[in-house]
Amino acid sequence: MVGKHVAVKALLNNFPEVVESLEELKQTSHAPEAKYKAGSLLNSIKNFKFILNLTIWANILREISRVNIEIQKQDIFLARFVSLMDGLMKTLQKMRENSIEYWIEEAKEVTGKIGVEPILLNKRIPRCKKQFDEMCDDESRTLQPVKLFFQATMMVFDRLLSEIKKGLVMQPR
Known about the structure:
By secondary structure, this protein is mostly helical. The chain has helices at residues 2-13, 15-28, 32-45, 48-71, 78-97, 100-114, 139-142, 145-168.
């Protein structure tokens, strides 16, 4: 997990340079495949949703990495392990309680450097044929992009917390 945190942190901290390098590669490369791949990567990462996810994951992985380093020490006692895991759960719970506006503000720091508008865009949702007994449209069609993103983020935090709790409960063999 330490490697993932380092990689995500490096990408987030050097995001403007990564974007600049990909733009230069797209403009100056003589290889059509390299131009295509650079353009495709740019389209994937140069949007607010990607940057917002990257920001959130950098924070999550930082905390997990910090605890991971401590629990791998040879001289760790069970009480210290329990204390670290409890602290991690409390920290993740506090992160979960942050509003979407908090995360948007944190991500704006990166978006300002690369000229990306801090706006989550609507995505076209294909319509499915309704069955005879269906009364209303799917809720996801009527939700705003920010609300959808926030719901997905809450699900990630819930899953993380659930998996940590499940891992802490010792099951009989």
